[in-house]
Amino acid sequence: MALSAVLDENIRYIEEYLPVQKSFDFMTRHLYLGETPAFFLGLNGFCKTEVLQQIFSDLQDASYMEDKKIEDIVRYMDAKVGYAQASLTDSWEDIFRNVLSGPAVLLIDGFSQAILIDARTYPARGISEPDMERATRGARDGFVETLLFNSNLIRRRVRSERLVFAMHSVGEESRTDVAVAYLQDSVNKELLDMLEQKIEALHVTSLTMGAKSLEELLVHKKWWNPLPVIRMTERPDVACSYLMEGHILILVDNSPLVLILPCSIFQFTQSPEDYYKSPSVGTYFRLVRLLCIPVSLLLLPLFLLITAYYPRLAEGWGLLSDSGLTKERLFFYILAVEFLLDLFKYSSALSSGKFSGSLSVVGGLIIGDIAVSLHWASAEVLFYAAITLLASLAIADVEFGDAIRLYRILLILGTGLFGMGGFLACLALVLLSAATTPTFGGFSYFWPLFPFNKKALGRLLFRSPTPRAQPSRIWNRGKVHK
In the chain, what are the domain boundaries? Predict the structure, then answer.
């Protein structure tokens, strides 16, 4: 719907559409620009008040107004509104979307256009290093909940004329700003078109949990696919490294997480720590993290399988000091310790930083010692469970580590209930679940292992020196599947 040239009709329409009389955070002012009536509308807290005060002080200054009547709104905006981000619109949809996002609007009597003044500001926290992606060296900044700040962090690192931030709006009620970032001549055009079409076709009320909600809307996965389907990061240096390789970044307002497309399982084994060390040291720690995945997944189930169903083999290898433990008791011990380790991890993660370290250490020592004394656990089970926990914590991506934990619990249950047959059957289910994990664009989740790409696989497994690691072209992942 278009604006009216009569100011009073426009004001009535605003009062019907927006709760300007009921909601305290709407700012409205009736103004006179010379002899021409005008009306201002904005949101308190979203506008830079000192900037708007200076603009309106100039507009209402008698010496500033050569003509008492405004004859041409385009010329008036260009000559009198001394602010860089000002534009005209004749659409109510544009006005309401902008006002609710932060910019203010100035309506002038006699014109069916309004002046949008983008003097917005948002409350924001400091761009400190994210807790879940810390590095011993390197940049200490991280994404925050303000989209403009996040785009600035990327633009500061990639000062390319080919870098594009395409803006979209998602959510019929929330109208959340979503920016798609890419390099024009490096991006997969087919994948980009598919992504933008899918974002525009989304019909949801709001993005309740920000980037995580958008991820679930873009890629639909079943409950038997716990592995993450889109790589997320809170580090600008990580996001920019993927951007330079031809990936697409998705920035969501009110969320510090940036989505990276396309995705494969090997992305969750990488860490920025690798690139702040020498190539040989970085390669070593990357291979250690890769080894931690099968250790975290298989160590406890294999320990249960051998000690419970093959006691002679366990005795020969010295896996268990108490040969009198039954397989039922071992099964119970491992399940109890698995639960306690999860309890320690989440309680320490959610508690205050002042107490989390002491809580996890003291609680683990006290409960572990008492559990062994009361025969609720054995020292061997606690030992292998501790190794499993350390291997899980060494996995670079938290969401990927949580998925491995679910797979491990399934293997423990299958092994404890059905022995070797249950272990093999559950292992087959784990492999099937991983193989059927969906990805955006239908690319292989196990690329570059399948389809095989020797050069790309070498880059992902081994940390290359900087001169050889420069992105020269897009790695071919195959055809986009819609």
Answer: 7-117, 131-263, 275-441
